[in-house]
Design goal:
heterodimer; A: alpha/beta; Rossmann fold; four-stranded antiparallel beta sheet; 36% helix; B: mainly alpha; Methane Monooxygenase Hydroxylase, Chain G, domain 1; 0% strand; elongated; PhoU (chain B); PhoU-like_sf (chain B)
Chain lengths: 252, 225
């Protein structure tokens, strides 16, 4: 892991009195896909949301430790959270397009950032849709409502919308869990292509998806990072018994 | 026990079953080589059983791969099972070949005694039994014993074959029996090799380390985790 994008040092998160993440330390490499796996309630989604400070919105949350993105602690008082979220995009389990046209969904972020030039916006929309591998499907219907698309198309549109603001990092919280196998396969292929230009962190309950899409896998259990390693090693020879039990379905 | 665990248990039982049949076939082949020709019907029946179990193992593994997507130790167990089944099926075939060769060895008793083939044949029986044992115990000490035994069998077998060839050079009347004996001994050596391969797959299953094609010169080092 020579090129580290995110360095996490002793990160703990409390929901009130409850400690939901316990001294997590890890390194997330740049331009790779890192999968976070673990049973429900293990803290993987909480951890994912720490990476773009989404947990700030929950009043009872307290965070200690460091989350260094490109060497800068994003929890430092002087850091502007809006800038963080520009750099770190997020795709959620349920696709959430705006009730607008396909074009406007993708153009929304750049517009919010102050871009008004139509030619530039057109270019960003096309590039983002191409990167999300849906340009050919959508190019002749850019003015159609995004709400009329299938679940799989909506999710890929949401990925295009994320790409439109040129993030460095993309967080994905079970992006394919509500999709059929063909749409899932398209999302997985997309993840594979996107890692060339982005650092991707994906939370998934689907072991095979983690195995297929990621370069590194981190296994969480009860708020602790039990093991992190190359995906090939985790799925063929995990170091820890808890990891082995979880991935082979013998947990608990 | 989950449905998946039951499938794995079923596979394990079939592997042990095919291993036990191979032990029986090798026992018969040694009997045929050292003593008198044996009745071939039972051997043929066992050979057919081994072939059927070999196919059954492939089918179970295929089904587990397709339906359960095994990982980690489960994945290694399924991968090793397919290979082990193949090795054991070959052991069964070779045992039958030894029995066939044994029929064409005249004045067998003299040759067996002269070249001290009894000890070698017993070692081949032993390595086969130990191989079957390690399929259920997965014991690393047994694996090491198998790998050592295989080396000894190979050395001893080659020495005996050299002596038989010398004998054939000076006494042409033993050429036919001698040739059959050499081929039978080569089959026994191959049986031992297959046992060693099985042991290597068991080692892989347990330790996730591939040791096939290694020399195993220093077993203590090579078999360290």
């Amino acid at each position: 892991m020579r090129d580290i994008k995110i360095q996490v040092n002793d990160l703990s998160l409390y929901y009130g009195e409850k400690k939901a993440l316990k001294e997590i330390s890890m390194q997330i490499p740049a331009n790779k896909v890192t999968a976070l796996i673990g049973p429900s309630g293990c803290g993987k989604s909480t951890f994912l949301r720490c990476i773009n400070r989404m947990n700030d919105l929950i009043p009872s949350v307290k965070i200690t430790g460091e989350m260094l993105v490109e060497g800068v602690d994003i929890y430092d008082k002087n850091v502007d959270v809006v800038n963080i979220r520009k750099k770190i995009g997020m795709v959620f389990q349920k696709s959430n397009p705006f009730p607008k046209s396909i074009y406007e969904n993708v153009a929304y972020g750049p517009r919010i950032n102050g871009l008004k030039d139509k030619t530039q916006l057109d270019e960003i929309v096309e590039t983002s849709l191409r990167q999300a591998a849906i340009w050919d499907e959508f190019k002749d219907r850019l003015d159609d409502s995004a709400l009329g698309l299938s679940g799989g198309q909506q999710q890929r549109l949401c990925i295009a919308r994320t790409l439109a603001v040129s993030p460095d990092i993309i967080l994905m919280d079970e992006p394919a869990s509500a999709l059929d196998p063909i749409s899932t396969s398209k999302i997985e292929e997309l993840v594979h292509q996107l890692k060339e230009n982005y650092t991707i962190i994906i939370v998934t309950h689907n072991m095979q998806q983690a195995a297929r899409t990621s370069d590194h896998t981190a296994f969480f259990y009860m708020g602790e990072l039990i093991e992190m390693g190359k995906t090939n090693a985790i799925f063929t020879k995990p170091e820890k018994k808890q990891t082995e039990d979880y991935i082979t379905g013998r947990f608990g | 026990m989950t449905h998946f665990e039951m499938e794995l248990e079923k596979l394990k039982n079939v592997i042990i079953k095919i291993g036990t049949l191979a032990v029986s076939q090798v026992g018969e082949s040694v009997k045929a080589l050292l003593f008198e020709p044996i009745e071939g019907k039972e051997v043929k029946k066992t050979e057919i059983k081994i072939d059927k179990l070999d196919v059954k193992i492939d089918e179970i593994c295929q089904s587990i791969f397709a339906l359960q997507q095994p990982v980690a130790s489960d994945l290694r167990f399924i991968m090793a099972s397919m290979q082990i089944s193949n090795e054991i099926e070959r052991i069964g075939d070779l045992a039958v070949s030894v029995i066939k060769r044994a029929k064409n060895i005249k004045e067998k008793h003299d040759l067996i005694t002269k070249f001290e083939i009894g000890d070698l044949a017993k070692e081949v029986e032993l390595i086969t039994a130990k191989t079957n044992e390690c399929l259920s115990t997965l014991d690393e000490k047994t694996i090491a014993e198998i790998l050592t035994l295989n080396k000894n069998i190979k050395t001893k077998g080659d020495e005996i074959i050299d002596h038989i060839i010398d004998e054939m050079k000076s006494h042409s009347k033993v050429v036919v029996s001698g040739t059959n004996l050499v081929i039978a001994l080569k089959h026994l050596e191959r049986i031992s090799d297959h046992c060693s391969n099985v042991a290597e797959y068991v080692y892989f299953m347990v330790n996730a380390k591939i040791i096939k094609h290694e020399k195993h010169d220093d077993l203590n080092i090579n078999l360290d985790k």
